[in-house]
């Protein structure tokens, strides 16, 4: 009886161990015809090194560089302030300029086209090419898969964003769901955006009915529950938590307790915000000393030119946004405080990436209130009619009845000191985001600022080096491709260490750039904001000629906010960088060049213009 029980237990242990390891241990038993002739063997269970830290990776959505108080903004973010004051602020960190590519690159430590996420996993915005099909391959494993195989429990809550639409039903297949990519528990949503009170909610591998509370509240409760259950069962076992709230992506929805805290705080407008915050950033040292504030984008009207009614309307949009961001900081504080309560905070490596791209441009010039598809549904109306819709619905801004996004002027303000915004992979305003790294036991320069050039693909190799884990040769028997990111551990306690990430390409919806050793060549490919009024008359827009895109050249060491185009002054430098972009694009499967913005415009035109 006891021998039978032992064999059953051994079988269970063997199954668990093999599923947890990247490369199964060679079988070492001796199997004879009888038990007396045999020698038993069990594989050694995978265990992290004693004292291995927990890892919490926090990724916010659609937050500009200067929105948080932590990086010079006027929106209260005391949790981020505290983590930064006891950790490090990375001021030269970059994303891909839009959500799904950033998330795919973050999870895999590889460039987004290289892991097939050139655009989105949405059916309408993927394409049948190696860099564009929206399906992360199995030979490019995730941080969750690697840490799980090294003895960590793995949880994810919030926005996932890299599951193909056609696989996102309860019938699966689940290979590209969080459970198929190494997460043992998941609670959140699979798409790019969702209503905060009526989310398209998923738990584990099935859609569930939300309980009516704000999504961020539910996500935090679930994250704390995952940690609590795990620590109760295995106090010494570390965990990995990927905490990715929908905030602050549209819809901006938050209780008035939070938004009303900012009543009147933005009445002076977006021009005041930019100059005020720029001065704050200079004092904090989160922008280079030689940075200069670019001129307001010509698409944005001067605040002083707006009539009082518009100023009042637009200020309310920003009050709601500010409340939404402060509320998000509060929800993060609940996780941080729980870790402190259970004596885990000092042994937890925390990353806070404040935005997967720059501030959103989807709110258009006038902001957006009503309906999920307001921007598209009103594509053929005049500016005055569109503005009237927003003015009449002002009381709904931020409520569960609205689908709110702020006007473009506030997005540029939230991106101070940079030009442009989300989707503009050619511009720092699309790709330059704050990063906080917190680990009390391992970071001695508390409150330090790091200026090394870095990118979202660097997070996974940083984590592995810090934990002493080698990149796996195989995951579940599948040989793994090379990581492309550069570990940042070298800079943790050396502020003056030269950057090791020296080359990085960017490409989103036709906008593209190449960075190399402080220089940057970049080309825009489409308008710098979505002018939906273009679709009210005339034929559909023709495809844009790629060869006519104008490349610009910047020396970011001297001009970090991209004010002075040096393309004509240094044509040979520009030519060399364009050649480098071509090499990187070829290596990373960027080609063929695809502008899904043109595809969407064609579809909008076909739908609304008869």
From TrEMBL:
Entry's Gene Ontology molecular function annotations: hydrolase activity; metal ion binding
Keyword flag Translocase: no
Range of residues in the leader sequence: 1-22
Keyword Methyltransferase: no
Pfam families per record: Sulfatase (PF00884)
Keyword terms: Calcium, Hydrolase, Metal-binding, Signal
PANTHER family the record matches: ARYLSULFATASE FAMILY MEMBER, BLL2667 PROTEIN
Similarity field: Belongs to the sulfatase family.
Name this polypeptide is given: Sulfatase
Species annotation: Chitinophaga parva
